[in-house]
Amino acid sequence: MKTDEINNYERNNDKAKVSKGLAITYLVHLSIASPSGGRSEIENLNVIKKIREGYLDYPYASAQAMKRSLRDTLKGLGYTISPIINSAPARTVGDPLKYIDDDLFGYMNAGSKKTGNSDIDKLNGIRKSVVSMTPLLSLSEFEDNIDFGSNMIGLRAGGNPMPYETEIHRGWYRISVYVELDRIGSGDGFIKGKKEVVKNIDVKNLPEVTEKYDFVEIKDGKCNLLKYEYDKLDKEIKYNRAKALVDSIRFLAPSGRNSNWLIDLTPKLMVAAYVKGAKTPFLEVNLLDQSQKDKDVINLKAIKEAEESFSDGIEDIVVGYRKDLIEEPVEQDNNIKPVSMKEAFSKIDGWLKLHFEPEDQKQNPSNRNENIDSVQE
């Protein structure tokens, strides 16, 4: 039987809580681009990444590349990001308490026994990314288009220009992002110690209580049940970080090589949902009506069907679109009303405020970097 002490603790502290997240699926349009392409001074053909389905190839940019673009956009928006340590392999500092990208995108800095790191340091050495995302995948096949150029670097050494070819593509691309809102500013990476919760429990009671706790100490047939204590970021900082991530999606800029192909990665058609659990209800939905060959029309029917399929896991939904690029369907037989992209992001911001309940919802744009001194103290 469980002791009264265990029963009291579980009754007061282990209330079930459904995790909440933000699921966004959106389309971008690339006029002409070389997604995830590279340049080589040796090879004269630079290929873009593609995935094959049947006899057709579809270009894509990897999720890793898209996360790098989000990170670079955060920096461009004025946030301080984690410095890169030149190690093997290279890594960030790994301080989610201080740096927004270490919090949102995670890191791996596994401690070694030789370094003498404490157990807590080793636990904090790995943080799973709060942000999960798909590659940026083209909706249309690759059609063997090539751009031509010359590498002029050889002229510096007295050589001749080297001609090269680069695969290029244009069209609609889709990407999905899922954000674990409950893990922003908390969890792995924020552990500061262990706290004894229940002491001197007979070992024979372990099978029915250990799943409720993080750590068990056993000695002489008795055990102590412990839970980890975490550094806590206040609600305002958590909200600001979630808002910064959403802003980086709204104003997403490409990273890496883009001087030859200046592309726009901001959403043109977006379906966003405030969801319960790790659900991505619109991951595979065709957001554009494929029956319309001569124009781009929102596929509200498919969006509505997906919403109904996941109705028990969706708290709220919004469809945003660029009215200058995409049209609404003539017949609308559902209660989903598409809005401008600005209105859609404003509604997402309302979800974030509802979720984090920041005390001060006013942000000072001249001081975007959070002051965490009070947290560390």
Quick structural summary:
The protein has 377 residues and is an alpha+beta fold.
Describe the structure.
- With 377 residues, the protein is of the alpha+beta class.
- It contains 8 helices and 18 strands.
- It has helices spanning 4-13, 63-76, 100-105, 119-123, 235-250, 300-309, 341-356, 373-376; strands spanning 20-33, 45-46, 50-53, 56-61, 84-85, 91-92, 107-108, 126-127, 131-133, 136-138, 145-151, 162-180, 191-202, 215-219, 222-230, 269-276, 314-321, 339-340.
- Strands 1, 2, 3, 4, 9, 10, 11, 12, 16, 17 and 18 form an 11-stranded mixed beta sheet that branches. A 3-stranded antiparallel beta sheet has the order 13-15-14.
- β3 (50-53) and β4 form a beta hairpin.
- α2 (63-76) packs across α5.
- The longest helix has 16 residues, at 235-250.
- The chain is globular, with a radius of gyration of 25 Å.
- The protein starts with a helix and ends with a helix.
- The relative contact order is 0.17.
